[in-house]
Write a structure and sequence with these properties.
The protein contains five helices and eight strands; from the N terminus they run βααβαββαββαββ. By secondary structure, the protein is of the alpha+beta class. It has a single domain, classed as Cyclic Phosphodiesterase, Chain: A (Alpha-Beta Complex), CATH 3.90.1140.
Length: about 180
């Protein structure tokens, strides 16, 4: 089973980003994010784990006090060609440390298999706005986001553990 450790945002920014997701979905016709109820988030760790997930929950829970709220800037948009459109956070020490520290905590369980794209020094933080796009949908999504994008600052206030494909929250911790 594939799981993600994700960052969630304060309600105001979550609503603002959700508004962008809905606008892009309506303009492109690609409603994957909306239909699957995928909330705005930044994945900081992605891994496969085929044992009892309570073990991972306990590992994170026992270390959650090490993490705190913080603000990050969103200053640009990006794409993973050809099928993902995203908001791009400004990389800072907070994000780098979260990625490194969460991986170190989870790595204490030897049965976790990390996705190489989310490993330290290989990870590109992003907030997906649309996924599984075809070329036309991507172009229309870019046109839409260009019309509505503005530089923003978001507050990270929760860390979650989610099951992937389909996306499902398992546990969310306030930080």
């Amino acid at each position: 089973m594939e799981y993600a450790i994700v960052l969630y945002f304060n309600k105001t920014m979550e609503d603002k980003i959700n508004s962008l997701i809905y606008k892009i979905a309506n303009e492109t016709g690609n409603k994957y994010m909306v239909d699957n109820n995928i909330p705005p988030h930044i994945t900081i760790s992605l891994f496969k784990y085929d044992e009892e997930i309570d073990t991972i929950i306990n590992i994170v829970e026992n270390n959650i006090s090490k993490f705190n709220k913080n603000k990050i800037g969103i200053a640009s948009i990006g794409i993973f060609n050809p099928n993902v459109l995203f908001l791009s956070p400004i990389m800072n020490d907070y994000l780098i440390d979260l990625n490194k520290d969460i991986s170190k905590i989870i790595k204490t369980n030897n049965n976790v298999l990390f996705d190489k794209n989310y490993m330290e020094n290989q990870w590109i933080p992003h907030i997906s706005l649309a996924v599984k796009l075809n070329k036309n949908e991507l172009v229309n999504g870019i046109k839409t986001i260009m019309e509505y994008f503005e530089v923003i600052e978001i507050e990270v206030n929760r860390i979650g553990l989610a099951e992937c494909n389909p996306y499902k929250n398992i546990k969310i911790w306030e930080i």
